[in-house]
Amino acid sequence: MGKRLRLLSGFLILVFGLLMVLPALASADTDDELTIRGTVRVGREVIPDAKVIVSNAQNIEVGSVVTGEDGKWEIPIPGLGEYTVVLAGPLPEGVSVRDGASDQITVFVEEYRSKAVGFQLIGEDQKPILEIRPTWERLLNRMVSGLKVGLLVALASIGLSLIFGVTGLVNFAHSEMVAFGAVIALLLESTVGLNGALFPLAVILAVLAGGGLGFGLERGIFGPLRRRKMTNISLMVVSIGLAFLMRYLILIYHGAEPETFESFRIQSGVSLGPIELPAKDYFIIGIAFTTLLMVGLLLQRTKLGTSMRAVSDNPALAESSGIDVNRTIMWVWILGSALASLGGTMIGLTQVVEWQMGEKILLLIFAAVTLGGLGTAFGAMVGGLAIGFASETSTFWLDNDLKFLIALAVMIVILLVRPRGILGVRERLG
Amino acid sequence: MTSDNQASELENVEAVPGSPKQDPILKIDNIVRSFGGLRAVDVDHLEVQRGIITAFIGPNGAGKTTLFNLITGFDKPDSGKWTFHQLSNKESWTTNLSGLRPHQIANKGMVRTFQLTKSLAKMTVIDNMLLGAAEQKGESLRNALLPSRWQKQEKQILKRAEDLLERFKLSHMRDEYAATLSGGQRKLLEMARALMSEPKLILLDEPMAGVNPVLVESLLVHIENLRDEGVSVLFIEHDMDAIMGISDWIVVLAEGQVIAEGTPSDVSKNPAVIDAYLGSEIAEELKDV
Amino acid sequence: MMLMNLFAEIDVSKLFGLALRTSISVQAATFALAAVGLNLHYGYTGLLNFGVVAFMAAGAYGMAIFFTQGWLGGSILLAIASGVVFAVVIALSIGLPSLRLRADYLALTTIAIAEVLRISFRSQRLLDLTGGPFGLPSIEDRNANVSFADVITVDWNPIKEGNYGAWFLEFDEKTLWVMIIGWSLVSLASLLIWGLMRSPWGRVIKAIREDEDAARALGKNVFSYKLQSLIIGGVIASFAGIVRAFDMGFVETQQFRPQTTFFIWTVLILGGAASIWGPIIGSMTFWFVIIFSEELLRQMVDSGWIPDAILQSNDIASVRMILMGIMLATLMIWRPQGLVGKKEEAQIDIR
């Protein structure tokens, strides 16, 4: 019976999946549709692989796309009105936005026909004309960018997994820490003036603020509630309420406008062999990688890390062997939230800082954590890398709006086939 | 009367692990369950005699509860087969139980209770009881909205539930939430609830644990009454006095295996059993018996 | 002095009028209806369904796609039926594989499937079927005021054209008719749940919420009961999606973002899970409180009583979400039984 049921459900999912994919095989005929379109070019040379995002007047993203081989892009819009088009890049080496022009263009679509938008770009005059890069190079670049996203998702995921490990709570508010970190860093950069060479200080302060927020949540809300013997399911619902509270407070005080870090607007690419990325991306990859390495060492080599893993394994046993469980839980909250904040600032650096960052990354984090195994920090790292990499690299073949589907599909399949995840341990029965 | 007959049949049964019984209700073969490298249960052959009280004893971690979980379908064995039997002049049949899911096994007439009582705390005592009855028409979605189809049966079930509550001295708590019962009363409720389905074999996991001594006496009487009414009883217990007092047959487990079985006097004399419990207080108790 | 000023500025009639109007509106009815479905899932069976919108979207889109494609002659009744069938398919594809999982895993699966559904509907690849980001009916039809709702709200509307009621509680014949349909469905669904929960079937359902293993040990097929609960509750929620589509005249994926699920959770917890009246009282109270606070804030901001530095009038829409978050968290902590639920049944400790 169990096997038959699993077969049946597998079949259902397969059919369901195929149904979803089927229309994707047909080429969409969007000629008659209301769209915003354009060609990203510098002089007579077109630029493939640059990301273009369209948002409506309420700053809700309507669609985004990566330019094709011919530099062309087209994004359908829901109706007449005001839209903002953002060129998010990356741009090839030596290409930048012309002085006085912007990488953001606001347009009014007033009639039922597609609207053309052009960005004013200039190349370095001496440079030879750009050639279109071979497919494998572009794939490689997409994969490196996938690695970057994967590292960032991993950073953001560790806390969720660790907190689940030591307390059993699935914390829906965790992703808001990501947005919190980015917004704090942005605030420090633009308002306090920690820009340019001082920018690293802004990041560090944002990470500390994240850790502080984690401390506050555990000390002020979740710790006391846990001691009141509230069940983890109830606490999960509390965390959902908290997530909405945080998200919309960020909206009110940060605003709906997506912003970028002033010190790191559109950068031209830096080549490393066949790989060409904005300079900041190399740093982001380096920082994220090093941080993950350090977290790994912390967990394996230090006393605090050992107690974290011990409490995660078996709180009662840990307590009886002299570990201060509550103190360990507190440190897990601080560490997890600080890492999420760091992830947030890094994501803000590569993309934009906006109030919806948390909402957008929430399901990626859940997917990462379930894939790796809820409760294990290393699982979150592996899962985060895999999910980030898979969803980002998939855009090489698939529509951009389908990349979340990849992550969600992975998550659903893992939950069904192996709910403990790849690194999780099977629960002992009886 | 039945008990005397059944108990007398035990006189011819050899007191060795896996010995065949004259009228077995349950036969277990080659059941294995391991956790990681540890073989929690590894029983070659075991038969449980019908109509008597059989006790599973053994030191902590011997695999008693795991074995319970396996044969009631709450845990899956790595391998193994177990069957339900009826051998008599009128009818004789064998029903395979291995591989079935818990509710299917319960519906075959093998019902269990749990070590940590699972009285449904946020339901009333009477609702707990009513839930226990098997084959209720109103439990199917088809009939649920048509009370005329199930009200008559519901009345009969209610009558039986009230009788059982009376017998287990819980009538005064009839409409209270089960959460308000004491630990001992919950054990009683769970046992009474299991009886609602009129099981052929009832498995009690530590029915006396955490129950105050006054209630223990009445629990023991209830268990003996069950046997006298023809229900076969299989139970796990640590309280040696209770085991020696009411069991007709004892199966001793250690490290997942059956190391001995026999009547209480057989078992208390068996050196393998004393060994298994070596150093523990129970070893001393056994010598005293 | 300041306070006197405030009272002079506040339009009390408008404050109560708008709040009352919304608390009996179609919106409140659809939230109540969805909460009735969720109540069966979570309140009675203990299923952590974080994908309520999946069922609403299935109902609304199933109906709208069937109708706009003109399948089988484009009958609206068949279209509604196909929305319901779609919801059943969703229930099966959530339930068959995941009802054996632990409660929190079920929560993740349901929220993920709801998002998969929404993103797929929104995909440009399905433009011809779902209208992609634009929804249904198409922009042209919408501009020409043609909608799948017309058959229900115009052709089959027994109420004569005109405005009914007075004060803020004045409705045109279309709104009034959809309100009647909505609240009738709420009553019907509540009656259904009441009938089910007083039967032995309902007793098994409650037992599963309490302790699955106990129900199993007593011979109940827990998986089958959970699936039945998921389907019935899902179909009820799908009607919420359908009524909402008739009210608005169009469907769009924006209506089915995860936050809608949590609105409905708040409605249920506020009213009281595991009670028949909980979803109804919850929805009416929820909308009254939300609109009352929003309107009060708006008037205070407009009159300058709240300085711009603290809150601006275009921030007020966010206040709704903040209120919802606070309500959800604080109710869970201090009053898990909500307004009319039983305290004894409220504590959830599903594993």
Could you explain the architecture of this structure?
The complex is a heterotrimer of chains A (430), B (289) and C (351). Chain A is an alpha+beta fold and 430 residues long. Chain A is 56% helix and 13% strand. Chain A contains twelve helices and 13 strands. In chain A, strand 4 (51-56) and strand 5 (61-66) form a beta hairpin. Chain A starts with a helix and ends in a 13-residue tail after the last helix. By secondary structure, chain B is an alpha/beta fold. Chain B folds into two domains: 2-119 and 198-288, Rossmann fold, CATH 3.40.50.300; 121-180, no CATH class. Chain B has twelve helices and ten strands. In chain B, strands 6-7-8-3-9-10 form a six-stranded mixed β-sheet, sandwiched between helices. Chain B has a four-stranded antiparallel β-sheet with strand order 2-1-4-5. In chain B, strand 7, helix 8 and strand 8 form a beta-alpha-beta unit. Chain C contains 17 helices and two strands. Chain C is mostly helical and 351 residues long. In chain C, helix 4 (52-69) runs antiparallel to helix 5 (76-98). Chain C has helices at 2-9, 12-23, 26-44, 52-69, 76-98, 103-122, 127-130, 139-143, 150-155, 173-197, 200-210, 212-217, 222-248, 258-271, 278-302, 316-334, 343-346; strands at 163-164, 171-172. Classes of the chains: A alpha+beta (430), B alpha/beta (289), C mainly alpha (351). The interface between A and C is large, with 64 and 62 residues.
Summarize the structure.
Chain A is 56% helix and 13% strand.
Unreliable stretches of chain C (pLDDT < 50, length at least 5) are: none
Largest sheet composition of chain B: 6 strands, mixed
Give helix and strand order of chain C, one letter per element, not per position: HHHHHHHHHEEHHHHHHHH
**Oligomeric description of these chains:** heterotrimer
The CATH fourth-level homologous superfamily of the largest domain in chain B: P-loop containing nucleotide triphosphate hydrolases
Supply the number of structural domains of chain C: 1
Q: Could you describe the largest sheet of chain C, including whether it forms a barrel?
A: 2 strands, antiparallel
Q: What is the average per-residue confidence, as pLDDT of chain B, rounded to a whole number?
A: 87
Query: In order across it, which strands form the biggest sheet of chain B?
Result: 6-7-8-3-9-10
